[in-house]
Amino acid sequence: MTTIEWGQLALYTAVLLLAAKPLGSYMATVYEGRRTWLHPIVRPLEAVTYRLSGVHEESEQDWRRYLFAVLAFNLLGFLMLYLILRTQGSLPLNPQHFPAVKPSLAFNTAVSFVTNTNWQSYGGETTLSYFSQMVGLTFQNFVSAAVGMAILVAVIRGLARHSAHTLGNFWVDLTRSVLYILLPLSLLVAIFLVSQGVIQNFAAYKQVATLEGPTQVLGMGPAAAQLAIKQLGTNGGGFFNANSAHPFENPTAWSNLVEMLAILLIPVASVYMYGRMVGSTKHGWVLVGAMTALMLLGAVIVGYAEQTGNPNLEAVGVTQVAGNGQLGGNMEGKEQRFGIGNSTIWAVTTTDASNGSVNSMHDSYTALGGLMPLANIATSEVIFGGVGSGMYGAVLYILLTVFIAGLMVGRTPEYLGKKVEAREMKSAMVALLIFPLLILGWSAIGVAQSFGTDALNNAGPHGLSEILYAFSSGAANNGSAFAGLGANTTFYNLGIGINILVGRFIFIVAVMVIAGTMVEKRRVPASLGTFPVDGVTFGGLFAGVILIVGLLTFFPAFALGPIVEHLMRSGTLF
Amino acid sequence: MAVAQAPAPVPLRVEKRQTASVWTAQIVRQAVVDSFRKLAPWKLYKNVIIFIVEVGALLTTLICIRDVIDGKSFELARFELQISVWLWFTVLFANFAEAIAEGRGKAQADTLRRTRTQSTARRVRDDGIEDVPASLLRRGDVVVVASGELIPGDGDVIEGVAYVNEAAITGESAPVVKEPGTDIRSSVTGGTTVVSDSLRIRITANPGETFLDRMIALVEGAERQKTPNEVALNILLSGLTFIFLMVTVTLQPFARYSGSEISVVILVALLVTLIPTTIGGLLSAIGIAGMDRLVQRNVLAMSGRAVEAAGDVDTLLLDKTGTITFGNRLASEFVPVDGVQAERLVSAAVRCSLGDETPEGRSVIDLARAQGYAHLVGTLPADAELVPFSAETRLSGVRSNGTLVAKGAVDAISAAAGSDPSRDLVAHSQRIAGEGGTPLAVLDGHQVLGLIYLKDTVKPGIRQRFEELRRMGIRTVMVTGDNRLTAATIARDAGVDDFVAESKPEDKIRVIREEQAQGRLVAMTGDGTNDAPALAQADVGVAMNSGTQAAKEAGNMVDLDSDPTKLIEIVAIGKQLLMTRGALTTFSIANDVAKYFAILPAAFAVTYPALDALNVMHLHSPESAILSAVIFNALIIVALVPLALRGVAYRAIGAASLLRRNALIYGVGGIIAPFVGIKAIDLLLTAVNLA
Q1: CB B655 to CB A422 under 8 A?
Q2: Whole-angstrom Cα distance, residue B226 to residue B228?
Q3: Candidates B244, B593, B666; nearest CB to A408
Q4: Active-site residue, B110 included
Q5: Rounded to an integer, what distance in angstroms lies between the CA atom of residue A284 and that of residue A282?
Q6: Inter-chain CB proximity A425 and B236 less than 8 Å
Q7: A10 to chain B, closest Cα gap in Å
Q8: A3 in a domain, yes or no?
């Protein structure tokens, strides 16, 4: 890695960590229902929302009713989005007169956006009207993120409260997430993006003459508004097909930095908020530390791999060494205006979080460089992870860590003063077992059958990587594409669609069951004999469990994909 | 009913209960036989992990046979044969671990059972006494047991006073007095022997339900049920097993896509080495051994759940008397008054105590010796006349040459001296009383020389044990009937965290409920019937064996030595059990890293030679690599059997240090150890040309 890349990584990490405490504290205040400085503006809106929808702010739900509300809300959201996509031809704001989206694609898209996955089997500027983008997709960008945050808050209450039954009110948590957190932040980011040249209009597409002479059609639309929440809500579904590599989505180095920060801003703050709300800020920081270490490990490996470049290019006389005004490294599939550092940091953070937006082609990365985003996704998105979903997924790994290592202090495992027993273990294991099943199972079918391998653009280990990446991206609700795989086939639409749904809801059900049982338990006051979760040892164990339990599952598959490709790369192309 | 005089103790041969050693030839032989018996699938299926290994072993054996019949190469057959053999060994080793733990319990049970050999009971009927086999006795029957006879069943003494030798149960050879009508000394246990006089006993337990029967069942492990933590751990381990099953099953299509199939033998080898066989094989042995460690310390836990709870205890509720203090008021200081020389006071105190055989009297002599006045301790003059303590005089001493040397209550001594107590005397005695002690004035002739400070003495070493408990994160609460001042003094001396003074029997249960309401787990000891409700309420209730039947029924552990301080050891054993489980689980999972590095490059040696870069151990050949991993995986089970039985050493250093220490040894060590082990086995296999 070059000096400038180290600097970019350091700046990025520093800003994120600095923002964690103020934003996390603010979020905690919001969810605890206390007064914030936004109250004068937002509180009336909130009150009106409850009055119009008949929500009783003070009435709380137990885990079953909370979960039922989540599922019902998602089902309705799915139906609404599906309907909009199917009828966009007769809806307003459609200057290009796009017809209705086909049923299979509408289904895939609706499922994908409702679950905060944002896997895109379509090109935005060639398929969707402005109405579909704004009312259909942007709305889900907000609420799918808010659902994740609401569930996290319910889980936090399950851990923080004791000898209780209720976990809060889903409708209130949902409303507050949107009104107090997502909307104000999106507004700020959107305005900044517009200042950098991101477009925001309702104009018809423009035909322009290029410098070489021929004409080109430029897609238009209300991009900035959607892009802010696309990043902040770890959605990742681009307004344009080229996603964040498109100049209208991400024009400058500054817009790139802000968009990258927006990916992890709320997830990092959520971890701080988690610690604070469960009663141990130090525990929160230890988790932030462990996750930051894993993130940096990934970033440094990808940065190193990409800067080192591809030996096959070396062999044909392409110089990849930095210097003489050259950035060097593997620039295939990367934007000149971002270079290696801003591309690799993005690749790592977008897969640490379940964002899935891209500003470079992961398929064109070196084998080792491509391995890391895949590995990040395969940890089931708990290195900060998606908005809300990352931290509640991490709770499963925390419980696993506490259970495996907790016994070593000579007490039956307990977390935050509550016993971890068979029922919690059962929920956690079901989620952690189904997740690799979704990825390895579908991939095994994919590589064994012609309907799977026919979609590949590359053979050998690289082809395996592409298939693994696609199913992982679905199961972990990341939504990014490795590319190189023609995934718009019945098999992949079905498999990835199932992964998206099962991957999202198995975790939600598992953590809600856990929250439901934990909230009823008594809390044992901490003593010198209690398993400490606020020390470096715990941080190390937590990271170790993510790596060993989360990642070793995929090690054999990775060995036959990116790892062997890396080891045999010189002279072999796929 | 006339209460007989306590009979004179009968000297008896010391008969300490034998603690079975783990590795006696007999136990090992039996365990080896049992390991084969346990191969039966209908016995093994309960342990998912080991059952999967057995299925794998069967599969590879069949493949090996097929390949030999098909005339495949010698090297292939040799490889498959060795893998099969070692997979069977893996199962056998796991069985052996369980069998040896059970064997030790069985050996102890056999010792107990010998005492239960068919004895004849003499049952009292309306028309006389009849001989019946002990097994026919029912609750409510009354039997007569004479000197030298075995007590045929659990019961209460209703008539007679006798010495009973309870060595069979407690290992303690000194006989104890049994008599009717007292709370504690009335209950007798079947299998113990009357060594003097005779007793009439009302039987309180039907055959098969006696204390001895339950004890045999417990140490034998026949009643063993999985504890809550074992159940939860099993869920985790089974989950991991299915994850790795999935990993190996899906590896075949990936391999086929990559160009060549992996042989089923290699897939089975990979699966077996990845699933947590180490902890899976040792889990039940750890549980049995934990119970057994308690039995060795003469504590019987009524369930494994109780042992686990002991590890989790947050608060210990301790009786002051007998647990924290000796329960007797002993001399701790000589306090001269009115300018009397200390030596004169000590000399008088010693003289008036020489004929005093009460603990107080003896403690005065001991204190004098300890303070360097040994030369004053002589023998009583020939003409000395002992003045025993009486309720009227409230003093005791010696009259010699017409002079009375005595010690006693301050006002009684002052009256005997014939003068009003001096201001100095009053001041000192008030100070002593204020500190919770008892002032004993010393009289020589007509002069009051000073005071002996009597106080309830804290047992030596108890303070250190409480400090240790504090480092373990356990609160100690002392319960006493003393007044607040006395209680506070003892509490300070002993270093307990809290105390309840002037407590009534119902206070114990109140304190337990209060602690539990705050989420704490409470342990206590007790012996009386009025302790029973509190014993039942406590999370860990240790009843003294000398206690009443009601107390024993209410608690979930019985201490056969009736030593209340053993609670501390019980907690340590509980912690040790949990730690051993955690340490081996961590070790088992951490082991997987090295196994991947051994097996994956070997499995794909043909398809992807480049993967040999992952062969960081530089194992000789693909066959030797896979074989070494399988052998390591099998041998580690046997290697860890002693640790599983002995338990990981527990130190009272606080959870944070303990975690750091164990995470380093079993986590980081668990990652490194197999790299070394597999490499060593590989070198050995290559040297003897087996791969």
Answers
A1: no
A2: 7
A3: B666
A4: no
A5: 5
A6: yes
A7: 29
A8: no
Helices (H), A379-489: 389-406, 422-448, 450-453, 460-475
Residue A54 resides in a domain: yes
3-state secondary structure at position B483: coil
Mean pLDDT over residues A511-528, rounded?
91
CB–CB of A144/A113 below 8 Å? yes
Q: Tell me if A63 sits within 8 A of A168, measured CB to CB.
A: no
Three state DSSP letters for A315-380: HCCCCCCCECCECCCCCCCECCCCHHHHHHHHHHHHHHCCCCCCCECHHHCCHHHHHHHHHHHHCC
Q: Which two tokens stand for residue B660?
A: 């750091």
Measured in angstroms, the CA of B259 and the nearest CA of chain A are apart by 9
pTM for this prediction: 0.86
Q: Look at residue A135 and tell me whether its pLDDT is greater than 80.
A: yes
A567–B655 C-beta distance less than 8 A:
no
> What residues in chain B have per-residue pLDDT under 70?
1-23, 115-118, 168-173, 182-184, 219, 221-224, 327, 691
Question: What residues make up the domain containing A133?
Answer: 16-276+284-568
- At how many degrees (to 10) do helices A536-545 and B655-662 cross? 40
pLDDT grade, residue A573 (50/70/90)?
low
Residue B619, burial from CB neighbour count under 10 angstroms (0-12, 13-18, 19+): buried
- The whole-number pLDDT of residue B5 equals 41
Q: Looking at the predicted structure, is the pLDDT value of residue A570 above 60?
A: no
Q: Which residue of A has its CA nearest to B312?
A: A411
Mutate to test the interface with B, among A412, A437, A450, A472 (most CBs of B within 10 A): A412
Record: contact B473-A444, CB cut-off 8 A: no
| Closest by Cβ to A524, choosing from B246, B519, B578 | B519
Q: Give the minimum alpha-carbon distance from A126 to chain B in angstroms, rounded to a whole number.
A: 36
Structural domains in chain A (count)? 1
**What is the CA B340 to chain-centroid distance, rounded?**
52
> For residues B505 and B530, is the Cβ–Cβ distance under 8 A?
yes
How many angstroms separate the CA atoms of B526 and A84, rounded? 73
CA distances from B318 to B437, B490, B511, B550 (A): 21, 13, 11, 19
Determine, yes or no, domain membership for A80: yes
Does residue A2 form part of some domain? no
Determine the residue of chain A that is closest to B243 in CA distance: A433
Among A114-123, A536-545, B162-171, B269-278, which stretch is predicted with the lowest mean pLDDT?
B162-171
Give the number of other CB atoms < 10 A from CB of residue A6: 13
- The verdict on a CB contact (< 8 Å) between B239 and A421 is no
What's the confidence (pLDDT) of residue A80?
96
Largest CA distance in chain B: 116
